Amino acid sequence: MKTPISKTRNAALELNLTSMIDVIFLLLIFFVFTSDFREPEKLLPTQLSAVGAIDAPLEQQERDLGKITVRVAATPSGALTWTVDGTRVDSLAAVERTLSALQEIDPTVPVVLDPERGVAIENVLDVYDAARRVGLSKIQFAANPETLTR
């Protein structure tokens, strides 16, 4: 005996692939943007051994020269003290040597002269002249915002 075939089986099966294609493209875009095409650093050729790289002190690492701050201060006895980026320097000649070394690293680095209150302007201009002699041209004077608003 022949069994009747239902009408639902005769209808063609339709798959809506539009949403599936959207998901595939989103996944493709995600994987393209998150992949890294650079070679891993550990595979690059180097002259350093792994032990030497680990034992290197942090002081020898290069730092970014954002600006050089030269602070000029006077002691109560009237003697001058100079500080270049937080490091105390003994004399004006030492300031000039330090600025010369920094100028060789980056000749376009700005220098900010920050004199304390009570320092004579000629002492500040001596530091300015030292910076110009070594080849630094971007020299600025620090100003106290409180005195500018008066």
Could you give a short account of the major beta sheet? 5 strands, mixed
Q: What form results from the Cα inertia axes?
A: rod-shaped
Instruction: Please estimate the helix content.
Output: 25-40%
Under CATH at level 1, the class of the domain at 65-143 stands as Alpha Beta
CATH topology of the domain at 65-143: Nucleotidyltransferase, domain 5
Residue stretches low in confidence (pLDDT < 50, at least 5 long) are 50-63
Topology pattern, helix = H, strand = E: HHHEEEHEHEH
Provide structural commentary.
The structure is a single chain. The protein is α/β, with parallel strands linked by helices and 150 residues long. The protein has a domain at 65-143: Nucleotidyltransferase, domain 5 (2-Layer Sandwich). It is built from six helices and five strands, in the order αααβββαβαβα. It has a five-stranded mixed sheet with strand order 3-2-1-4-5, with helices on one face. α4 packs parallel to α5. 10% of the residues are buried.
Please provide a brief summary of the model.
The protein has 150 residues and is an alpha/beta fold.
Keywords:
150 residues, alpha/beta, Nucleotidyltransferase, domain 5, 6 helices, 5 strands
Topology:
Blueprint: H1 7-10, H2 18-34, H3 50-55, E1 68-74, E2 80-84, E3 87-89, H4 92-105, E4 111-115, H5 121-133, E5 139-141, H6 145-148
Parallel strand pairs: 1-4, 4-5
Antiparallel strand pairs: 1-2, 2-3
Helix pairs in contact: 4-5
